[in-house]
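S1.2 Input.
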Amino acid sequence: MSSGRRIDHTPDGHFVVIDGRRWRATDPMLPEDIASRLRKHLMAARRAVRSALSDEDEAAVRAARGRVQRAKVALGERGTPWWEQSAAQRRRRWEDGLAALDD
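S1.3 Output.
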């Protein structure tokens, strides 16, 4: 199923370009099973943000947004750019992220 969106990568692979807007790419070193788990956490956190906003629960919004941030950092999409990290730093980033999100 196609979303109709045009998705490209920059030549260096650091960013994806979706409908002309540039976003940092997920760390390509992430094993697919880890990336999948992190994406599930990210989607659950985004749903929690939406629910908390509709409930007008500011504490829940902050907590859910914190989980979104943690998942995005673990995926390499926020924080220190993955291309500026060693392999050990990259592994530690996603392992720490999963440990926090799995709690």
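S1.4 Remarks. Residues 29-102 form one domain.
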